[in-house]
Amino acid sequence: MALTHKRDYGWWLGATTTDMLGRSSQNLALPFTIVGVTGSTAVAGNIQTLGLIAKLSVILLGGVLIDRMDRRHAMYLRGTIGAVLWGILAVLIMLDIVPLWGIAAIVLLVSISDGLFGLADNVALRSIMRDPKEYVQARGMSQARDAVVQVSGEPIGGLLYNLGKSVPFFFASACLAFMTFCAHMIRADLRPRPADEEKENPEGATATDTAAGAGGTGNSSTEGGETSRHPIRAALADTVFGFRYLFGEPRLRRLVIANTFIGSGMAAVICAVNFHLISLDYTPLQISLLSVLYAVMMMFGAMLASRLSPRLPGGKTIALAVLGMTGISTLAVFFHDYSQLLFFLGIYGLFTPFIGTMLGGYTFSIIPTELQGRTSSAASILEYGLTAFIPLITGNLVYGGNPQLAFSIGVVLNGFAFLLLLNRHVLSIGTPSTWEVA
């Protein structure tokens, strides 16, 4: 990995790590804050669903924006908006004037900001690491980082919540502010580039190198002045193009749909665990400790994925990982006391990094950077369209005394994903050295 790439990757890792730490802190504290105000896990699930629906409603527009703007600026905007809003909620909690509508409004606004600009950081990594093998290894290291954050993030969130109900939200605000600083320190040009330019200059350039010569972002669906004359028509055309690109190739189509079920299945398992244990009066610290073993195993899995991924066939590796996740989800339906869930989540975490490294690495590697905002938003709207209802469904099932049904949702979703992956187009995906920009 080149020295410049290492430096920029370090700042990117710093930006996304602090973002994740803040997110872990507020994600743990938010349900407890809502339950403390309303006394209902169902209301907590409903507000989380409201936030996901808000994010879903703007994510396609967000994909178009990210393909038309410097991804660095998108990171600035999301960091600033989130820092201000979580800071406001923290002050309201500290002053003990927290109406339910106020929580809902802040969750709604943060979710809209995430929908518009939240894809920018993942897309930016592809502008920093342009070689597929380096990119997959970087994703593997990022998966290990994810595990470290999960080991520390939720326990930190639980500890902060015990120190004061407002403290996790102050922490989330500070993390987002620091994220904007890290984004500023990245030297690479984070603007989208046309596919032909990527092939001619795969190593990329710094923002300074390209500032004078960059004449546009290479939008595939707009020509000349169409964007300025008909911005709405151009945005719609770009959005449609993102879907057409994803679904125009059989292998990519199956991977996108399978990833929708995988992401929703993971959300179902986590939501079922959290709401089930909250309903049994476990403390935030106890629930956060459940994530520690999951994250430790995820860290081990991420190290394996980073080391082994250059030599593993992508398609078969993804399918085997999803099969393992389906088996663990099935066991949780029948055995879900605290110690059993502790064990199951640990094993679940072992498989998770292989999905992110191989499936995510493959799709990001073969899609040109100029299209990654639109294609990412198109894929995300499918996933969030399903995931948006997971907190609502699992929260109400647990509240109604049906935890088995809540846990079974993860089995069904992971099972569908596995069946989709049993296809020659997917199973024939080779090692990362064979992946090329389409």
TrEMBL record:
Q: Which domain of life is it from?
A: Bacteria
Q: Which CDD domains match?
A: MFS_MefA_like
Write down the Pfam families for this protein, in alphabetical order.
MFS_1 (PF07690)
- Which residue ranges run through the membrane? 47-66, 169-186, 255-279, 285-305, 317-335, 341-367, 379-399, 405-422
State where the protein is found. Cell membrane
Q: Where is this region: Disordered?
A: 194-229
The record's keywords, sorted A to Z, are: Cell membrane, Membrane, Transmembrane, Transmembrane helix
* Major location category of this protein: membrane
InterPro entries, alphabetically?
A: MFS, MFS_trans_sf
| Membrane topology according to the record | Multi-pass membrane protein
Annotated Gene Ontology cellular component terms: plasma membrane
**What PANTHER family does this protein's entry cite?**
INTEGRAL MEMBRANE EFFLUX PROTEIN-RELATED, STAPHYLOFERRIN A TRANSPORTER
* Protein known as: MFS transporter
Q: What is the lineage of its organism?
A: Bacteria, Bacillati, Actinomycetota, Actinomycetes, Actinomycetales
